[in-house]
Structure formats: structure tokens, C-alpha cells
Design goal:
The protein is of the alpha/beta class. It is 41% helix and 15% strand. It contains ten helices and eight strands. The structure holds 2-phosphoglycolic acid.
Length: 242
């Protein structure tokens, strides 16, 4: 995987015309690196059609490849469509949709088995940071989600402090780096070699200082990825650190 890696998570945003406008604009620029974009499921075919240099991913998937799971999306069906990656365990899935560690583990294993790259998200709440349990919370999430992991080159970790997501509050480079260092140590102990992305209010103005930190290999970007201009700026700044 070529680093730094900048992934846009559009969440439940954008209509057809906005998706078209985003890719038309991105495709008209000289890109400094490969953009990765995760639109809503319904826009995956359009995004795949217009992707240019981009890699296209899902924001979630089920762990079964077929069956009576009304309203769910199978990892194999995503792969079949041409999707490259999927997020798993985003904090909104954990908190709003009550996805447990065990459930997420099944999704990680199935998505990898289907041939998708998995971006497994972890991160602590404000309370957990304040009572000093950030590293143990993140380690528990890694233990749970990465149980029985096969050898793979298709795993990416995204560290997203929950208190920094969509709040405009970014972790300081020192806070981010401390947790990234702890995650890197954990991965090394398990003989896993995969990129670790930071997420949580990443924007053009804070990209350079975050991406300059050791052990920060890229960014998972929510709000600022909706604008092709901002997303391009983030991509550009991440690839052109002074
Ligand atoms: P944000 O979202 O950049 O809007 O904080 C990040 C994410 O949830 O992946």
C-alpha cells in the first residue's frame, strides 16, 4: 500500500449530482496520490464508474455472504461489484448501531476472506481519555476485532478518538502520536505490519502537522472529504510535507 493513505468517509451524505461533481472535479486535477473514497452503498456503482485514480470502498458490510439478512450488504457482493475496501467498526457503528467486538470480528474476517481491504476503526470516548484508559480501550478493541486474523496484507487500522469525530476538536499531534505509537507496538507484538491512519476532524489546515508525526500513515477524513477542494488539499498536503 502506498503511503500516506487518505480515505474519505462520506457517511450518509451526498446525492447523485454531488457525487458526479466531486469526481469530475477530482479527475480534472493532477493527483499527488491515490484517493480512497467510501460513499453511501447506493452510490457505489456511480463512484466505481467515475473513480478515475481513486479506490472505492464501503462504510460497512455484513459478515454473511448471502441469506436472510434483510437490508444488509454482503462482502462478496461488494467484491463482485468491484469495491476495493470496507470500513469496519467505525465508532458510529459501535455506538449508534451497537455493534459488538465479536460481531465486528466476524465482519473483519469475512471481508478479508472476500478479498476486500479492511479499514478497522478503533478509538476511545472522552470519558475514557479523561480517566487515562485510552491505550487499554484501544488495545481491547484491537484484540476483539482482530481475533483469529489470518496472515494478510489487506488490513489498515484507523485510530479515531470518538471525541474528535465531527466535533471540530482534533487530537493534538502529540496525543495522536502517543496512541499511534502504542498501536504500532501492539501490532509489532502480533507480527502485523499495517498502516495506522488518524481520523477525527482532519482538515486542510491540520493535515501537515498530523501527517508529519511518526507512526501516522495517513488519515480517515469525514466532513472535510465531502468537498472535492478540501479533500484535494488534504491529499496534496499529506503528500507534500515540507
Ligand atoms: P470527521 O469524521 O473528519 O468529520 O471528524 C471522521 C470519521 O468519522 O471518519
Amino acid at each position: 500500500m502506498k503511503l500516506p493513505l487518505i480515505i474519505g468517509n462520506w457517511k450518509m451524505n451526498h446525492l447523485t449530482e454531488e457525487v458526479k461533481a466531486f469526481f469530475s472535479d477530482l479527475n480534472s486535477r493532477p493527483l499527488p496520490g491515490t484517493p480512497w473514497i467510501a460513499p453511501q452503498f447506493i452510490h457505489l456503482p456511480l463512484a466505481l464508474e467515475m473513480k478515475g485514480e481513486a479506490k472505492i470502498g464501503a462504510q460497512n458490510c455484513h459478515f454473511q455472504n448471502s441469506g436472510a439478512f434483510t437490508g444488509e450488504i454482503a462482502p462478496q457482493a461488494l467484491k463482485d461489484l468491484g469495491v476495493d475496501f470496507t470500513l469496519i467498526g467505525h465508532s458510529e457503528r459501535r455506538s449508534l448501531f451497537k455493534e459488538s467486538g465479536d460481531f465486528l470480528n466476524q465482519k473483519v474476517l469475512s471481508a478479508l476472506a472476500a478479498g476486500l481491504t479492511v479499514v478497522y476503526c478503533v478509538g476511545e470516548s472522552l470519558g475514557e481519555r479523561e480517566n487515562g484508559t485510552t491505550n487499554s480501550v484501544v488495545e481491547r478493541q484491537l484484540d476483539e476485532g482482530l481475533k483469529n486474523l489470518p496472515a494478510t496484507e489487506k488490513l489498515i487500522i484507523a485510530y479515531e478518538p470518538v471525541w474528535a469525530i465531527g466535533t471540530g476538536k482534533t487530537a493534538t499531534p502529540q496525543q495522536a502520536q502517543d496512541t499511534h505509537t502504542s498501536i504500532a507496538k501492539y501490532l509489532k507484538n502480533r507480527d502485523l505490519d499495517c498502516p495506522i491512519l488518524y481520523g477525527g476532524s482532519v482538515k486542510p489546515s491540520n493535515t501537515a502537522e498530523l501527517m508529519a508525526c511518526p507512526n501516522i500513515d495517513g488519515a480517515l477524513v469525514g466532513g472535510a472529504s465531502l468537498s472535492s477542494e478540501d479533500f484535494y488539499q488534504i491529499l496534496d498536503k499529506a503528500h507534500n510535507l515540507d
